[in-house]
Amino acid sequence: MQCQILSIGDELLIGDTVNTNASWMARELTEIGVEVNRIYTIKDDLAGIKEIVNEALSSADVVFTTGGLGPTHDDMTKQAIAELLDSELVVHEPTLDFIKKIFKERNIPFSKSNYHQAEVIEGCEVLFNEQGTAPAMWFDHEGALLVVLPGVPYEMKHLMNHHILPRLKKKIGNKTYRASHYMLTAGIGESTLSDEIIGDLNPFLNGNDISLAYLPSPEGTRIRIRGQASTEQKLKDQMETLIGHIKKQADGFIVGEGKQIRLAEKVGESLQEVGLKIAVAESCTGGSVANSLTDIPGSSNYFKGGIIAYENEVKVNQLKVNANDLQQQGAVSKAVALQMAKGVAQQLNAHIGISTTGIAGPEGGTDKKPVGTVWIGFWSEDQHFAIRAQFTNDRLINKQRTTATALEMVRRILLDISEMPYGLKKQLA
Amino acid sequence: MQCQILSIGDELLIGDTVNTNASWMARELTEIGVEVNRIYTIKDDLAGIKEIVNEALSSADVVFTTGGLGPTHDDMTKQAIAELLDSELVVHEPTLDFIKKIFKERNIPFSKSNYHQAEVIEGCEVLFNEQGTAPAMWFDHEGALLVVLPGVPYEMKHLMNHHILPRLKKKIGNKTYRASHYMLTAGIGESTLSDEIIGDLNPFLNGNDISLAYLPSPEGTRIRIRGQASTEQKLKDQMETLIGHIKKQADGFIVGEGKQIRLAEKVGESLQEVGLKIAVAESCTGGSVANSLTDIPGSSNYFKGGIIAYENEVKVNQLKVNANDLQQQGAVSKAVALQMAKGVAQQLNAHIGISTTGIAGPEGGTDKKPVGTVWIGFWSEDQHFAIRAQFTNDRLINKQRTTATALEMVRRILLDISEMPYGLKKQLA
Predict the structure, then answer these.
(1) What is the pLDDT of residues B367-383, one digit of tens each?
(2) Stretch A35-59: mean pLDDT, rounded?
(3) Looking at the predicted structure, is the pLDDT value of residue A101 above 90?
(4) Total-model pTM
(5) Do A284 and A321 belong to one domain?
(6) A362 preceded by cis ω (within 30°)?
(7) Position A226 confidence tier, pLDDT thresholds 50, 70, 90
(8) Which residue ranges does the record assign to the MoaB/Mog domain (chains A, B) (predicted)?
């Protein structure tokens, strides 16, 4: 089944809005087996909408439009499609009642122009939008399907998830079974992962039935495996064979499985599993590590807190770093990283303390310690070490990568994986 | 001058990548007066590329393509356009030398297939890409311009900024003068800002020559004013009249001016101006406030650090919050917010201490203190108060909004603006 997406809206063509609707739809449609072969982005323009919808209906099995269903004079979509299909606009009573009710609840006066919001094109099937005021419309047009959706992202997603995707899945039928599987890896570069760790996959990739993609992300490289087969069993076997191979090859680098999995989430799970609590002492990451950990609901179960020792005085006073060591070796040194990690664990009464100290940039680098130099410390009753990394000269990327490396370090320690991220060596006092 | 953009790449149609290139280009082009009237997103497909480029060249003054210039067998763009223009691919020697040099530096063996990366279409003007391996190509084709760009964002932006946009600006000539002006507001809702504070702008908006848009962002509402006129003076007058009016109406709510201005940046500037240092005590924001402040280069000039007192024990031990008050009134209370702010300022030896304590969610709410309840505290030698806000039930949005509100609170204090964000009242001990 082939489809085309038409994103309608002036704001998309002046760069005010990024077209996230189209890419979300493209991903969801691809997952259920509908191939997107073209995406058009055009203005709220009567002639343009008619032209493209007409063209698309003759080139694809399904055509989607998003946008242009609001009440302002800029919103052209309904009128354009009504004209194209030689039809009329009629008021949809349930939607009208719903809109009136919303306006009443919010104390907004209902005026005549608001009737337009409840209009639909005669001949369509109305798909009621519980999340907003614009209903979706579904048309069977001479063998092709036309689906008209609002442009507001959560409304469009609600309608797609509740109405459209299930219907299309049914239409595609059970002739083909599909599945996707996602894994997050961390602490290894993408090319090293694909070329050296995972290696040649040709024995597993059976033509178009199964595919593997490496998707970069700030935390690490995500691996996505997609498969399809004519029976559920065949699909299961194919997927499990390749997934099993990846897990065997990349064991230790795989943080977790699932589309939305996050490094901080898995670190949290591991801490909870062993009943340990962690505290963080941050300098160059300035709160980024704590922020990542606390983005995860339930983190209060294992996260004590942290000390952001941005000024050296704070390293000495709050973390009990030795003032002489600080002066002689500098804040960005093994000794200071080690002491920060131990200091925060002791001060905050945590089982594990980690630290970051480095030069985020863009200023502050020297020949010996250029921008991007970072020490990451670890303290527990069992181990006390620091690793030294070299990142880039971009401040925000340095914060991000140091944070991911520190979290990955903790994850590996908790799982007894001896190799540190990027093969960096544990350096003792 | 009208243009169309053709984004080429399979990954765009399976939702792996969001089309940020097209929206970036659309914004930059619109700013210099080139109107984007259509964006196509298509696969790496020979026939499709030829069809669309051909169609676009007959419908616009300038056609841009991005993507498909790599060395793999998926990359079709050069071949498609060569066929369409009835031309050949030839090796561009300077690019070949450059690629060989990069490969040598990175110790990557140079193979025959890498020659393809240095090929360009005969008849084009080559625009050398110092940021990557694929050069851009500029064609004058029967009165229309065709610009072929790589898909890698920083390479495309480099080529656009250094070669393409300046050339197009020159072509447009000085017949129309254009300008844009951006302002960030904070601590006020968008509708209140537009309806009550700024109000009716019809006297200022002169048809299409000047426009104003409200653009929501996590930190606040950005106002964008765009103008055009036939002379520089007329443009200047029009823009200054409207900008002056906005500044007068929205004085106090305007954080700063400029497209990329950030709240943390302005707070930092204000702190530096008065030579004061700040420390943060965070509970529910878990590091987000410190992280925002330290994203700004030079923040070590005014940011002492922070204490992330995620567990109550840390509030008592590190911030010297009174254990009885904590027990009786709870962590999410005025008393605790006040004490956290004072405690961190004293412990970290800062002029200003701010605090956040609340229920980020999704769990933890009660009838009296539902999810989204937040106290934000402020301490300095001059003032000591807390404000109470009520946000949503989304954890990440709560963290974000609490952070923005805390930063906006500081900004207003430093500028002697007595009203607090969202009209929240300062509550004393």
Answers:
(1) 999 999 999 999 999 99
(2) 94
(3) no
(4) 0.82
(5) yes
(6) yes
(7) confident
(8) 4-171
- Count of domains for chain B: 3
Mean of all residue pLDDT scores within chain B: 92
Domain membership of residue A10 as a residue range = 2-172
A169 Cβ contact partners less than 8 Å away, ≥ 6 residues apart: A32, A33
**C-alpha Rg value of chain B to the nearest Å:** 27
Q: Are A76 and A49 in contact (CB under 8 A)?
A: yes
A-B CB pairs within 8 A amount to: 234
Within 210-229 of B, beta carbons closer than 8 Å to A belong to 213, 215
Whole-angstrom Cα distance, residue A61 to residue A65? 14
The vertex-A315 CA angle with B334 and B382, nearest 5°, equals: 35
At A17, which CATH number?
3.40.980.10
Q: Which residues contact A163 (CB under 8 A, 6 or more apart)?
A: A127, A136, A138
Tell me, what's the ipTM?
0.81
Q: What is the dihedral of CA B363, B366, B367, B368, to 10 degrees?
A: -130
CATH code, domain with B252? 3.30.70.2860
Those of residues 156-175 in A touching chain B at CB distance below 8 A are none
Residue B123 has what pLDDT?
92
Any chain A CB within 8 A of the CB of B357? no
Q: Domain check: are B12 and B106 in the same one? A: yes
Minimum Cα–Cα distance from A302: chain B residue: B311
Among candidates A179, A197, A221, which has minimal Cα distance to A32? Answer: A179
CB B9 within 8 A of CB B151: yes
Residue B177 tokens read as 């003068």
Both tokens of A160, joined, read 């797609």
pLDDT digits (tens, 9 = 90+) for A4-24: 999 999 989 998 889 999 999
pLDDT beyond 80 at B207: no
Q: Are residues B12 and B137 in the same domain?
A: yes
Closest CA to A388 of A343, A422, A416: A422
CB distance from A346 to chain B under 8 Å? no
Cβ within 8 Å, pair A395-B14: no
